[in-house]
Write a structure and sequence with these properties.
alpha/beta; Immunoglobulin-like; about 40% helix
Length: about 475
Amino acid sequence: MESLPIKDTRRVLIVSSHPLFGQGMRRLLEGRGDVDVHVVGMVSDVEQAVAALKTATPDLVVVDYDDERVNRDEFLAHFVEGAGQLRVVLLSLKEGGSEAIVYDRRNMAAAQIDDWLKEWTYSERVVYQVVGEKNQRRANMKHFISAALLVGILTVVSVFALDRAQLLPVAASAQAGPIDQLFGLHFRIIAFLFALIVGLMLYSILVFRRKSGDDTDAEHIEGNTTLEVFWTIIPLGAVIYVAYLGATILGDITRPDPRALEVKVIASQWSWRFEYPEWGLISSELVLPANKQALLKMISTDVIHSFWVPEFRVKQDILPGGDNMMRELRVTPNLEGEYKVRCAEMCGTLHANMEAPVIVVSQTDFETWVEEQSQVVPEDPIDRGQFWAQQYGCLACHSIDGTPLIGPTWQGVYMHEVLLDNGTTVIADEAYLYESIVNPGAQIVSGFANLMPAAIAEGMTDEQIAEVIEFIKSLE
């Protein structure tokens, strides 16, 4: 086994009456990895220095050039008498001081002191450098392999944990497949980055921690241009690649089917309404046939809402503004079952309650449902009024049993005196009820805010409004 040569020991004597100078020079010189520097003494005047020259036999004397208590002429007189191989550095630390005067008929820049400390015979230096670099490379490779193994283990454990956690609900649409693949890639990238950061941090804390009794400064590192280039280019390439995959998947899941089932989705605070133009149906449930693309045309009657069925993986914000701001979403359910549509945009006080059933059935069952819905509208006008109130979301805000909700209760309101927020009163006759539906902001009941959608009646016929009023009149 090849062994390292013994490094030269440089014995240094420090002459200064200022403790900070001496302590600072000691910390600067000792603990070096390339040269074994030993401070043999720290003295404060010429007499102590002369004595130390005889007993400590230093190779180098560092003199505080700015210390007036040190008589430099007297010290140098002793030095010249029998210096031999001794070197004396007169070091100035005053602001602007940039040179260290070396008393061997040369001036040396302060930064060159390090070069002087590294001097030893050429043969020793070559052997030590070659062997040292070889050992350093071996140590670096050992650290690299150990850290890489730790990062790899953490990555595998993190990926396994994410897979077992089942972060995503069941996939119930054709669009969910490619989206889940992209999610899976994201999860693995996140697991790797987590392992890379935490793994290297833990390895550094355990392996390169400060040892007991070590009070030296860490090695100063200026930087590594090659490493910086790599950690810029590789993440940039990864981001561009993921963006390409996202754009490709977006194109796939939004590709239109000319035979798609059209459904109009109307969002209001805080209810959903679904209309099937092909059959003239209105429903508070979204019923869709499996394995057939549905084209959802969505509008909002009041504020911004967001259509989201987690099992379908797709989501679309819905904007107010009528048909001019209509948004479209395409989804192909492929797993029969019952789900829920949720509003994924904070839309007001009852935002959390803005849900509606989503039912995926076979094509045969869907046709049966359409036939049943065609016959579900009651024949009695009062019952039809209740039906329309339910379908248009009125009962989400108005109770029929006296319970206070966001809006005033309908129970017992007909032909009774109503106190308005301006302090006046009005009798709740048919005219008042009609105006409250078609122009809800005209007269606000005291104690309630103006939250009713202004365009709620745009999708209702006069006959439907009249039947809702008949239903309200029946609630005594």
